[in-house]
């Protein structure tokens, strides 16, 4: 019997949306992981919702906790997770934590040492002792994965830092979206963590405590999509191209950083020219000014070919989400930029489900209520110094 007991008969499950059968087959050929049914996916908006749910899961752990994050700040949010992980270790739970070496330096003193002092087994991804000579500045582990007892997971775009706790009125508030994942697809999250852990430490994670039998929990059909500058190179980019080719009515993309390469820009424009309603939702206020400038320069080409663009009201929105035809949903750690598609290690989840898509459409509609729609005239009428600034920033887009 396959280790994936809820593997999907694609033709049967997607018979009402037959054009997505070809997309599912494409992604399976790219990722070499099966589509799995029986999942429940619950969106968690901002750290105010996501962090308590994640900490409750850690506090309920009986056997194991695995956590991978890009940023793990030494602040109120970080200490909440530190305390929860320490409590788990105190109960005899096996805990493993991966923090990217660059992400670990976002606050000082580093949370890595505090985790170690609490008896938590932690590894840094591609560490270097010379931060001013980063040999791997472009090979970062940008994944966000939490798995408890091998059965319940969390993933999305949210780091661990106080800025996501909007109810705390942080100095630099950041909106974001995370997901509580239950069901067989949690195994894909755990497999990805286990591969990263073996790379970092050489330790192999095997057995029931890490990979138990997972019972169905819901109706969502889903699959994990790892991506990185290794054997998983360009898997997510190919998936996005495939989804755009399948689109017939609508494409909605929410991303904090929009710097696609020329091929992806062409795919977006071709979809719009076929009559697909292509919507690109970006934050009005960006935490990286040069990225915003480069992105603005790219919008001209998209608007000229029929894509629609909105800028959402502050605070900065770090949400990463893609919807196609009110059926297909993609969420995870990757941005719509070259760094995510080619240089970082990312993890996303594709889902085929009308109900989940309706929830995400509702969330996007809420964002658009106070958003500013960008017009072609507006971009064309930028003052010459602004055009020059944005154009120069765009020249550096492969490095952003």
Question: How many helices does DSSP assign?
Answer: 13
**Structural class by SSE content:** alpha/beta
Instruction: Identify the CATH class.
Output: Alpha Beta
Q: Write the CATH homologous superfamily.
A: Endonuclease Chain A
* Low-pLDDT segments, ≥5 res: none
Terminus-to-terminus distance? 45 Å
Radius of gyration: 21 Å
- Provide mean pLDDT, rounded: 93
Helical proportion, percent range: 25-40%
Major sheet size, sense and barrel closure: 15 strands, mixed
What is the number of beta strands? Answer: 19
Strand order of the largest sheet: 4-3-2-5-6-8-1-9-18-16-15-10-12-13-19
- Number of spatially distinct domains: 1
Strand proportion, as a percent range, falls in 15-25%
Shape: globular
CATH topology: Endonuclease, Chain A
Write the CATH architecture name. Answer: 2-Layer Sandwich
What is the topological layout?
Layout: H1 10-13, H2 19-31, E1 36-45, H3 46-59, E2 64-69, H4 76-90, E3 94-100, H5 111-117, E4 121-125, E5 145-148, E6 152-156, E7 174-175, E8 177-182, H6 186-201, E9 220-227, H7 235-246, E10 250-254, E11 258-259, H8 262-273, E12 277-283, H9 289-304, E13 308-312, E14 316-317, E15 321-324, E16 328-332, E17 336-337, H10 338-343, E18 346-352, H11 354-369, E19 372-374, H12 376-380, H13 384-395
Parallel strand pairs: 2-3, 3-4, 7-14, 10-12, 11-17, 12-13
Antiparallel strand pairs: 1-8, 1-9, 2-5, 5-6, 6-8, 9-18, 10-15, 13-19, 15-16, 16-18
